[in-house]
Each structure stands twice: as structure tokens, then as C-alpha cells.
Amino acid sequence: QVQLVESGGGSVQAGGSLKLSCGASRFIFNVCTMAWYRQVPGKERELVSRITRAGTTTYTDSVQGRFTIYRDNDKATVYQQMNSLRIEDTAVYYCQGCDNWGQGTQVTVTS
Question: In angstroms, rounded to a whole number, what is the distance separating the alpha carbons of residues 67 and 49?
């Protein structure tokens, strides 16, 4: 049973923007802190942003001020707005809720 479904990845030039979406089951959305991770080949998956049920957000230093995570309670969806994208933001981005993971969506930033 698919619990998390991501969308919104793609290719963009440096300085551009993308918005990722993660549709969650109602149970996961209501119970879990939701997060976005990213991974590049040969490296460990790293936490990018996190939002609690109460809406408290945290970000890794490299995206602070450029990325915004937010929740739409009516749609049980978590978003990550990514602005001023850099080449080093290129990765597969994963949505996480509790122990559940999405399938990943590729983000590629070109020069």
C-alpha cells in the first residue's frame, strides 16, 4: 500500500525554482512529523527540511532561506518550495513520514 507519493521534480537552471509535493495517507499526515530528504549517488541520505504537526520547521544550513516546507491539512500534502536552486541541490528527493518513505523524485539543477 502506497503511503507517500511525491511529485514535482525536474530539471531547472541554477537560480530557478521548483516545488515538490508529497501526498500522504490521512493517518500518516495526522500522526507524523513530515520531512524531505535528499540523496546523491555515493553519499548518505541527508535531511533537508522537517515540519511537525504543529507547523514547526527546521532546515539544513545549506538550504536555509531558500527552501520552504509547509503542510496543507485539507489535502494531507506536504510541499517543499525550492528557490535560488544551486547545482549542488541536484539529488533524488524523498518524502518521509514516520518510518514511511516515498519513491523519490529527481531534481536536477544545471548551469
Answer: 8
Report how far residue 67's alpha carbon sits from residue 17's, in angstroms, rounded to the nearest whole number.
9
Those residues whose C-beta lies under 8 Å from the C-beta of residue 63, and which sit 6 or more positions away, are 48, 49, 82, 89
**For residue 94, what are the CA distances in angstroms to 4, 33, 80, 107, 111?**
9, 14, 11, 11, 23
CA distance 45 to 95: 11
Write out the chain's pLDDT in tens, 111 residues. 668 999 999 999 999 999 999 999 999 999 999 999 999 999 999 999 999 999 999 999 999 999 999 999 999 999 999 999 999 999 999 999 999 999 999 999 999
Q: Hey, how many other C-beta atoms are within 10 angstroms of the C-beta on 42?
A: 5
Nearest to 23 by CA among 65, 57, 74: 74
Q: Are 69 and 78 in contact (CB under 8 A)?
A: yes
